[in-house]
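USER:
Try writing one entry.

ASSISTANT:
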Amino acid sequence: MPIVHEFDYVRPGSLREAVTLLARRRNSVILSGGTDLVDLLKENILRPDVVVDIKGLEALGRISFEKNTLNINAGVTFTDLIESGLVRKKFPVIAELAGTVASVGIRNRATVVGNICSAVPCMDSGPLLSAYGANIRTISTKGKRTLPAEKFFRGNRKTALTKGEIVTTILLPYPEVPHAGCWIKLGRYTGEDLAQVSLLVLALGDGSFRIAFGAVAPVPVRARKIETLLNGETITPALMEKAKKLIEQEIRPISDVRASKEYRMHMAKVMFERALGTAIRRLNGTGPDYGTRMI
């Protein structure tokens, strides 16, 4: 399907120039990876007057670790995460997640920031940000601001971004105690498919857990009721059953073309049990390698 709508195309030389262009032109959009934007243009869902291409801005393509925080800048792709020695060493569950995103071709182009800015319920990055308690840094002509990830997502395809505002960096704090994680994504087939249910579990050395679901509510769900139940406890079969029952209070799956709400709820419980057990075993040094399929 061709793009039939006409628009201006601009490649700014700096971030400052980019935000100025976005502020000056009312009907403008950002192009970075373009994996979502191009489809929206082809389907005539978006009809911008100008496309501002920021993918060439060198400052936005970096991954760094500063002040015990992982900084993922706006131009970082999922392939960049997979290939980063820093990510694989300190945040291996991020590389595990990135490896399940679409196809190699999409991972080479799609950015993590673009993924969260799409704000679709099945986005892969949402549970990651929720589990790690990430912050999101933005810039506009009005200045810079930083907001928690849980306040960034407002609903299906809705974020807290204002007109002309650009996300520059995702900041993921590194836990102060040893930790391990597990990411499970349920699709209809192996390959380029959207999640029916997704789940990220972190097991921390202080006996606490962080649990976040995706694709089962309009926004990513941090399962705090389950965390409260499990924190500091030995995971027994009886406790596991209580936790699985609580999932019914935490998530709100719907029925659509990919799965029924009943199937999503059932599989969320199956995935939770597997992810929790895997994260605990990895923390203890006995779990499967990151990237091993759990479902």
In short: The mean pLDDT is 96.
